[in-house]
Each structure stands twice: as C-alpha cells, then as structure tokens.
Write a structure and sequence with these properties.
Length: 123
C-alpha cells in the first residue's frame, strides 16, 4: 500500500482506478484503510479542481420539490397564494424572510442556500 498525494490528472485517474479495485474492502483491514484514505484524497482533489456551485435558491426549491414529488400548488400556504408561488418560482418576485423560514422548515433546505442571490426575470 503506497499512498501519495494526488498532484495531477494522471495521479487522479490512477487513484480512481485503485479505488475501484479496493472499494468493497472490509473495514479495519489494510485494503479497507487504504480505500478510506484514497477516497479522502480523491474528494480533496475533486473539491479543489472540480468545485460544484450550489444552485440558486429557486433552482434549489425546484430540485427539492422534484425529490419530494411536490407541485406548485403544494407550496400554497408555505410561500403564499397560488399567484405568489408562481411569481416566486418564475423569479418575478424575491423570497421574503418569512418564506425562507417556512421553506427551510417544510422542505429541509438550508437557509444559507435560500438566501443566495438570483436574478429576477423582468416582465
């Protein structure tokens, strides 16, 4: 087991191939420990070289709605009226603090995501 830092794309591909081989190794074995360390190295490299930006708040709401099989009408009462829900989801109006609190509670979306900025669509 020779573990070294991932410094290049070639190192990254090599680490991915090695992880494929040892991925299902039992915990608390030499290969299991190696898999844990290699996966941490891969994760660190990916976070540094392939960062994933969080979706804007409205996209996050839509993603969560899809995950929970919710429709726009299911947000009536959480965001407001049917027309208010439509305005929010179509980026014609901004989320208010009260809406953010309710969405965080009901949809389990972090407030830090919901307070992010996004462009309104002009009419």
């Amino acid at each position: 087991m020779k573990i070294s830092p991932i410094k290049s794309e070639q190192d990254y591909r090599k680490a991915l191939k090695r992880l494929e081989v040892i991925f299902d190794a039992p915990e608390n074995t030499k290969e299991g420990d190696e898999a844990e360390i290699v996966s941490l190295l891969i994760e660190n490299y990916e976070n540094e070289h392939y960062p994933i930006e969080a979706p804007d708040p409205i996209e996050a709401i839509k993603i969560r709605m899809e995950e929970l099989n919710l429709r726009q009408k299911d947000l009536v009462g959480i965001i407001g009226t049917k027309s208010r829900v439509s305005e929010i989801l179509n980026k014609k109006k901004r989320l208010t603090v009260d809406m953010i609190r309710e969405l965080e509670r009901m949809l389990q979306i972090s407030a830090s995501v919901l307070v992010g900025s996004y462009e309104l669509v002009s009419e």
